[in-house]
Amino acid sequence: MAATVLVNSNLIFWLHAIIFYNMNRKSLIYTIIIIASIISILLVCFGIGGKTSDSSKVEQYKEYSDLDNISIWLATDIHYIDPNLTDGGEYYQRMVESGDGKYMYGCEEITDEFISQVIEAHPSALILSGDITFNGARDSHIALANKLKAISDAGIPVIALPGNHDLTVGRAAKFSGDSYELVDSIDASEFLDIYSDYGFSNAVARDDTSLSYVTEIAPNLRVLVVDVNTVPGMSGILTNSTLDFVEEQLKQAKEDKAYVIGVTHQTLLEHSELTSQGMTFINNDKLLDLYEKYDVLMNLSGHMHIQHIKESNDGFVEIATGALMTAPNYHGEISLNGRRMTYKAVPTITDEKLSVAAEGFLWTNAYRQAMELVETQDNSADLAGYFADFNVNYIAGRPDLIQWDSELNKQWEETDSFVPVYFQVVADEMEASKQQNFSEYTIKW
């Protein structure tokens, strides 16, 4: 069976899928393709990242009590795979290396290190915002849930929700040598059973029609988990019944003078002016209306595998944390105290060898693909290396660290590829924005 059968078909951004698309830029048809492709690239370009925002919520919050030294950790897009489901053979290698840059070869080590860090730091809560497993295999869910028990046993509440790779996945498989065999995935009821101790059993309210729920971190702070991936084969749909549940809970929180943080897997906001599908979910606009109406503090998400921060037109903030398995292997650390919230994206890996391997994997993938475009040029290595460096900083939410080279940019312009368009979009947005650091953010009210 062809190696492409089980390749990740998620609609999230991956540079391999769009940058290296050969095209004739004089063609109107290809111009349309450019516009469609630019959606993902612009994710990092439209936003405010890294600055302090004076909240408009002051009027409502003036009657709320101060928050008292609350810390929340967040990880997203772990894509954990049970080691018993792969022998690291040829098929698995081909799939990983044709993927979106996740360093799956270090999955077990990265996951274990993250769990150890959570236990040592002992935050007020840990949020896992979806795509917990690698294509939803039941054994992977069970194995990860067993690992999470060490966190809950340490007295740290875990708040979990499914992503689009976690439920009823037809590609769930065990990999051996140069082949694979399909294995069981799980449905919503099984997710609830496996992760019952991770948010659900202690919920103050649960939605009857999805895996959405509300949990309380402090008497005046609640987390509203909104699930849009319950409907089999129809991930990314926020139903009207769940919207009703959300509004009911927001009304109750307002009455109780409790702050609310929203959590989704897919992004609530379109992180690009051109994004229309794939990153967000159906009825995201209705959820945003409710969040702005009831002055939700912010939304936390993932899905993009890119570190990014976005504000709505009315100033509502969403922070999308990068994937735990993709360099620089971020997790989010959130501190709430008094009337101030700070967020930082923190690299998880402390082992230098593992960190170098993860970043090298992301860099090499981009380099290899770039070389296919410029291999006939005398300085092909310089051109490909420049692109790979550029991409690593972009994925990390740090385009401000890109070292621009006008001569190499000019040479890329002469190629019949998408790369110069990518470069120009980032350059234009950096010029238009005051700051392009999406790894930290502060809200005050």
Structural features, described:
With 445 residues, the chain is an alpha/beta fold. It is globular. Helices cover 36% and strands 18% of the residues. The protein has 2 domains: 61-347, Metallo-dependent phosphatases (Purple Acid Phosphatase, chain A, domain 2), CATH 3.60.21.10; 352-433, Serum Albumin, Chain A, Domain 1, CATH 1.10.246. It contains 14 helices and 16 strands. The chain has helices spanning 15-18, 28-41, 58-61, 90-97, 107-121, 138-153, 188-194, 196-200, 240-255, 284-293, 352-374, 380-395, 406-413, 419-432; strands at 52-54, 67-75, 125-129, 158-161, 173-176, 179-182, 205-206, 213-218, 221-225, 259-263, 298-301, 308-311, 317-320, 330-338, 340-347, 440-444. The strands form 3 sheets. A 7-stranded mixed sheet has the order 1-16-15-14-2-3-4. A 7-stranded mixed sheet has the order 7-8-9-10-11-13-12, covered by helices on one side. The chain has a two-stranded antiparallel ribbon with strand order 5-6.
